[in-house]
Design goal:
Os07g0408100 protein, WD40_rpt, about 50% strand, Methylamine Dehydrogenase, Chain H, WD repeat, repeat, mainly beta, single chain, Quinoprotein_ADH-like_sf, 2 helices, five-stranded mixed beta sheet, about 280 residues
Length: about 280
């Protein structure tokens, strides 16, 4: 069963499971109380169903799959290690997971088969993002790596490549907390080092580093403008201009346009919803 057209999802690793609300009315559509998913470990698979990697409980950390119209777990899978980050491609053909060992896992959705697994980072993978055939991974080791999925899915290409990754960015001084991509091959990352950094995926370089008063755990990019939103541990959402017209790498806080501060606690995840217009 397909979900309503406008839903907002929220998940908790400690209580209340995962719930979905109708964005137009605010009514709760469904709640999966058996889910204990951490930030960036819940994904929608092409609108068909939900996949949620569970926080470790003892020796078990399965991935739960849910139908939209049923609160029970439909299917469980058991990867070889806890999955910290989980995303799906736009067509819902593949699931990509980042493990606590630093490995990345690539599954086919239809069969559940693990197509490829590779060691990406020396500490846990905290976040993943896709841009066309590029996969961007951020880690607790502070690094961000860019992978060509066409290369990684072909064994011969992997063996012939000098390095498996296309780019490796190491400018963050502390763990990377989130990464997001937008048109123009631009990526924005957040980190525990109090900065967000803007990257060119086509040129393989940092375009700008912006300092924040707080650690930022999440970023969301506005596709309609050169603005992104950074969720801070101080309970504020910082509205920030990318400033990517600058030709040389720079670091400043002058591009923070303002902050939304209705929350007392940290923001662990941000997402933008499409504009909703009333029916006349």
């Amino acid at each position: 069963m397909a979900p309503p057209q406008q839903l907002v999802l929220a998940a908790s690793s400690t209580d209340a499971g995962v719930a979905a609300w109708d964005l137009r009315t605010g009514a709760e559509a469904i709640r999966h109380r058996t889910c204990a998913s951490r930030p960036r470990a819940l994904t929608v698979v092409a609108g068909r169903f939900l996949a949620a990697s569970q926080a470790p409980a003892g020796n078990s950390a399965p991935i739960h799959y849910y139908h939209w119209d049923k609160p029970q777990v439909a299917v469980k899978s058991f990867p070889v290690e806890p999955i910290r980050a989980l995303i799906a491609d736009p067509e819902g053909s593949y699931l990509i997971g980042g493990g606590i060992s630093g490995d990345i896992f690539f599954w086919e959705v239809a069969s559940g088969e693990l197509l490829v697994q590779w060691h990406a980072h020396y500490r846990a993978v905290r976040c993943l993002a896709l841009y066309d055939f590029l996969l961007i991974s951020g880690s607790e080791d502070g690094s961000i790596k860019v992978w060509d999925l066409l290369t990684m899915l072909d064994e011969q290409s992997r063996l012939e490549a000098k390095t498996q990754h296309i780019y490796s960015f190491n400018q963050h001084a502390l763990p990377v907390t989130d990464v997001a991509c937008c048109h123009g091959a631009i990526a924005v990352s957040s980190s525990e080092d109090h900065t967000c950094k803007i990257w060119s995926l086509s040129e393989g370089r940092m375009l700008r580093s912006i300092s924040f008063p707080s650690i930022t755990d999440s970023v969301a990019l506005d596709p309609r403008s050169h603005i992104f939103y950074a969720g801070g541990r101080d309970g504020k959402i910082y509205v920030t201009a990318m400033g990517i017209d600058v030709t040389s790498p720079s670091s400043d806080d002058s591009t923070i346009n303002g902050a939304l501060d209705d929350h007392r606690f940290a923001y662990s995840l941000l997402s933008l919803a499409p504009l909703i217009y009333p029916v006349m």
